[in-house]
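Consider this pair:
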Amino acid sequence: MEAKDLPLLVIGAGRGGTSILAACLDGHPRIVMRSEYRSAGLLMGDSFPIAATASLIDDRLTAFRAACDDEVLKHPGRVWGNKITTEQIGGLEEHNALNDARVDVVERFVGAMTGYRIVFILRHGASCVDSKVRRTGQPPVRAAIKWCYAARLFERLRAARALAFWCRYENLVSDPKRVLAELCDCLGLPYDAAMLSQTDNGDLLLPEYRHGRFLAEKATEIPSLSPELGALLRPWLERLGYA
């Protein structure tokens, strides 16, 4: 398989822009995207019983890879992709909670998904936390910790040179044509303007996420959080280049 035909994984924090980026990619005539296909069931184990704690991470990753590979084979001539969240990858950390011998979850994940190109999208932590709390009712501290994990995961993937491309949500919504053209160039595919018309994609975007346009104002409307949450996020915001 040529590099330009290799499958994709779009990864980012929950409420971090993975859905809109996946929808844009799905608008490309050469790409077919799925949303969180088997990721909660297999990576987090929601529908995958634990057969043996010592092999938990390998069992889940093997099953997830097999499920994705099966879907790739169903779309000959197309680039197949799956968008997943960092929280779902975080489900693999349960292996370390159940075993004395710790494993490097990021290293295991990257190794298991060799041949899949990873596209990561970053979003300001305050925006992710605020959105997650409002949409899901999740406790703010829990949402903040999950975003910090997403930031750490991004840093690890970038240091391991495991990313085919990464972008900021703020740049995607404020200048989508430029970001998507750069992404296509990195994937070895021609840019297609149809990618810009996916803000109402009914297959990949929930009704409340369909706005008929890119929400450019979201690039600058950063919510205020409590001082306690701000202190939790600030070190990672600074490391990721957010003022």
